[in-house]
């Protein structure tokens, strides 16, 4: 499983929005794009998708921008990737209707890998990512 550029940019944008969650102030696209080095137009499309998926909400006006719909600790990575990439939680079961033994063996291993990846993504939240980022920034400060 590989992280697409689209998903990486979206998660970076969400991290930026999550960092400002407590203030209650919306972040404008240009602010997010500048901080995370994401093209404005592309970010606009990503945020529209995330808005339709119920992860962010937009606020209009001169002080408008984007906000998370829930606390960062309540937004899981799986939910974000599901919104962007269309991931599905598949039951970790054998496919009894496999055409060939070889194909069924490959399918079983792929299914196991997918279930493991989904399990990890369902475990981590935006809050977890923010905390990991902040602790790494603290460590980096000691090495300067």
Overview of the structural elements:
By secondary structure, this protein is mainly α. The chain has one domain (5-143): Orthogonal Bundle (Arc Repressor Mutant, subunit A). It is 58% helix and 6% strand. A two-stranded antiparallel ribbon has the order 1-2. Strand 1 and strand 2 form a beta hairpin. Helix 1 packs across helix 6 (126-143). The chain is globular.
Write the layout of secondary structure elements.
Blueprint: H1 5-19, H2 29-36, H3 40-52, E1 56-59, E2 65-68, H4 77-85, H5 101-121, H6 126-143
Antiparallel strand pairs: 1-2
Helix pairs in contact: 1-2, 1-3, 1-4, 1-6
CATH-assigned homologous superfamily:
Winged helix-like DNA-binding domain superfamily/Winged helix DNA-binding domain
Radius of gyration: 18 Å
**Beta-strand segment tally:** 2
CATH class type:
Mainly Alpha
The low-pLDDT segments are: 91-96
State the separation between the terminal residues, measured CA to CA.
Answer: 35 Å
Return the CATH architecture. Orthogonal Bundle
- Record the strand order, biggest sheet: 1-2
Oligomeric category: single chain
Tally of structural domains: 1
Mean pLDDT across every amino acid position: 88
Key structural traits:
144 residues, mainly alpha, two-stranded antiparallel sheet
Concise synopsis of the structure shown:
The chain is mainly α and 144 residues long.
